[in-house]
Amino acid sequence: AQPTLAVVGATGSVGSVMLELLSSRRNVWGEIRLIASARSAGKTLTCRGERLDVRELTAEAFDGVDVAMFDVPDAVSEHWAPIAVSRGATVVDNSSAFRMRPDVPLVVPEVNREAVHDRPVGIVSSANCTVAAMIIAVSPLHDEYGLRELVLASYQAASGAGQAGVDTLHDQLTKVAGDRLLGGRPGNVRQAVGDDLGPFPAPLALNVVPWSGELADLGWSSEELKLRNESRKILSLPALKVSATCVRVPVVTGHSIAVHAVFAAEVTADGARQVLRNAPGVILVDDPEAGEFPMPIDAVGTDPSWVGRIRRAMDDPRALSFFITGDNMRKGAALNTVQIAELIAAELAKGAPA
Ligand code: 2RA
């Protein structure tokens, strides 16, 4: 029989993308069980053309479940993932709760799919949305040229902060739209937006906010440390030098990252394009003269990382600069988690030890 899949957080914004993917990808699942918090339980959602009732998150909800995908806040994963494992499920967790634990693999299938099979506590973590988009392009270049350092600037969409982020951006844009000069007069965006900041520390409309996540050590944000720590773990490069600045931008969906990568070997832009042209999960869009760039408005709703603006550093033949955009709700969250779950389903189908 095909494995039973649970979707925990099914009513959330990432959860709904998971259901969409499960309905459009080749089906490898038997029963699909939708699970959510008590306040969201009882809703009925559609997946694979079936109307499914959303069940409340309880221990019993995991009885008979082979694989459980979680897209819930860190604290909820922290508490419930071990319970799901104790009821027999293998957990694929999209929160950051377990990502840096040495006994939990952190996986982006295009880069390190083999890590899925070594999961001593029955949990596999999916990577941060910005990391997932970036690492898919950086990894093949590392394989070819030997990565030594990453200097990153992210341009992260409002939907990375959930539905609240999207609603806040929409409300703020409504308030600032219409007055063509508003963005050009000091202080007026703050005045127009008022105190409706939602999940952001400052107004997002007509602005960029150089912050994502929570305050961490030495002035770094938690998001910037994720880009450093998760990249090191996924690439197995514990000494990789990473410096990231994570910025929220007034985009609904689509995270972008400007990358400066320093390698051991000399690189050329054409050589890098050749490597990326054949890389899994990458679309090369690199023709500035024709106005072709990786941009959120094109990447949204698609699976790959869109990569362009590839050029060799003017002052270092071992360094490349380039730009990446990916749909943070799909490959950044729902798709990466679904792909990992499918790898586990394939393992179960072969009768390997779950
Ligand atoms: C964000 N990467 O964009 C974080 C969580 N999705 O807010």
Automatic annotation (TrEMBL):
Known EC number: 1.2.1.11
Binding site for phosphate: 99
Keyword Cell membrane: no
Enzyme class: oxidoreductase
Pfam families: Semialdhyde_dh, Semialdhyde_dhC
Residue ranges annotated for the Semialdehyde dehydrogenase NAD-binding domain, each copy included: 4-119
Residue numbers binding substrate: 156, 248
Keywords: Amino-acid biosynthesis, Diaminopimelate biosynthesis, Lysine biosynthesis, Methionine biosynthesis, NADP, Oxidoreductase, Threonine biosynthesis
Binding-site residues for NADP(+), renumbered to this chain: 11-14, 39-40, 159-160, 328
Keyword set includes Oxidoreductase: yes
Oligomeric and partner information: Homodimer.
Protein's job: Catalyzes the NADPH-dependent formation of L-aspartate-semialdehyde (L-ASA) by the reductive dephosphorylation of L-aspartyl-4-phosphate.
Family: Belongs to the aspartate-semialdehyde dehydrogenase family.
Protein name per its UniProtKB record: Aspartate-semialdehyde dehydrogenase
Organism lineage string: Bacteria, Bacillati, Actinomycetota, Actinomycetes, Micromonosporales
